[in-house]
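Input/output pair, single chain:
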Amino acid sequence: MTQEALGQIVELRKTRNFTSPFEVREIVGPEVFAEIFPYLTLTPSQYYTIRSVGKLNYSRITEGIEAVVCISNKIDKKYQIIQWKEGVSPYSQYGTRAPSQNDLPEKG
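Output:
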C-alpha cells in the first residue's frame, strides 16, 4: 500500500466511517485489496483504550493513567476494566516524544 493511499484512507476516516470494505478497494486498487481483504472489518470493537492526564494547577506536574475497557451488554455493569496503568507518560500516545504542533488537534 502506498503512503498516498494510506493518507486518503486516514483523511476519509476523519469525516466518516466506511460503509463497505469495497470502498477501500477504490482507494488501494484490486491487487492490494485482495491481500488486505481478510483483515478488514466494519464491526466496531467492544474494547477501548482510555488515556487521561491530570495536571496540578500552576505546575508542570502531571500524572497519566491508561485503561483498557470492554463494553458489553453481557457484563453485569455493562463494562469491565481489562487493564489499568498508573504513572503513564502524558505523551504515551505519541511514543516517547512530546507531541508536535502537527499531532495536536486543531482548535475549533
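The chain has two domains: 3-39, 47-90. Residues 94-99 have pLDDT under 50 and may be disordered.
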